[in-house]
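Quick illustration, no need to memorize.
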Amino acid sequence: MLKELKYLLFILTIALFIFLILQYYFSDDNKKKSFRAFEQNDKKIIVYSKKLMLLENDTNDIIEYVEKTIDKNKKNYNFWELINDNQ
């Protein structure tokens, strides 16, 4: 009997906890606070983005492409051909 009462108390405590959490989460007060926080963050982002310095792009023509030299004596290997030859 005592064991069942203990389990009932646990279940009621958990149910009460979940009910109070959901009640606060869906309350108008919480929605207003979260909306204000989002709005303040948006304003801060706009202010900080206006203060940022723009750096000049210095990465033009950094990569040099080298054409493959054609050597008739050199054999070209492909990965799948090497696997198939060993079988």
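Residues 2-25 form the longest helix (24 residues).
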